[in-house]
Design goal:
- It contains ten helices and no strands.
- Helix 2 packs across helix 3 and helix 7 packs antiparallel against helix 8.
- The longest helix is centred in the last third of the chain and has 22 residues.
Length: 184
């Protein structure tokens, strides 16, 4: 087994996806997927990278991070909306409602899952619901005129003050419940 094949199999484990699920995402049969990972071509590796956000240098040479640092496709999302003339319907109120509904659909993946807290058989559905949430988040940000990286940076800085590492490390409590003398 080549090291590229090993890295592809490790990627599959990381993504918690079966060979059939991996194949389906790539538009292949399971047999075609198995054959492609045994003898990976440049085109197959590029398809893996584009489909799963994997770094090509990692797949080919085992260097760098597993996942590439891809930009959120904001322009693509807005272009999709604009090509359909939907912006007129995208008020902050309606987008907030849509975000809440999509988040509820994500929760539905876990309904009746019993002790299976990961609901592994519903990974595909979870991916779709998360994509819907992220798309609506981009549309909402556009509707209220905010820059996503800026507001995330601001919120992380604010949370960093509330949840100091020395008090929050390994602790699930809300910051208002921390004791003044906390520490690791």
């Amino acid at each position: 087994m080549t090291t590229i094949t090993t890295r592809i199999l490790n990627l599959q484990k990381t993504l918690h996806r079966s060979s059939k699920e991996m194949a389906g995402s790539l538009g292949l049969t399971e047999a075609e997927f198995q054959s492609a990972i045994e003898f990976p071509t440049q085109a197959f590796l590029e398809k893996l990278c584009n489909t799963f956000g994997v770094s090509l240098p990692y797949l080919k040479d085992g260097v760098g991070p597993v996942f590439s640092k891809q930009q959120l496709p904001v322009a693509d999302i807005l272009a999709f909306r604009d090509a359909r003339n939907w912006k007129q319907f995208h008020t902050p109120k309606d987008l907030a409602i849509s975000l809440s509904l999509e988040a509820s659909e994500l929760l539905e993946c876990f309904q009746w899952s019993g002790s299976d807290v990961e609901a592994k058989e519903k990974q595909g559905q979870m991916r779709e619901e998360l994509a819907d949430i992220l798309i609506y988040s981009v549309l909402f940000a556009d509707a209220i005129g905010v820059d996503i990286p800026s507001i995330i940076g601001e919120k992380l800085a604010k949370n960093g003050k509330k949840y100091e590492v020395s008090k929050a490390y390994g602790n699930a409590k809300k910051y208002t419940e921390f004791e003044e003398s906390g520490g690791r």
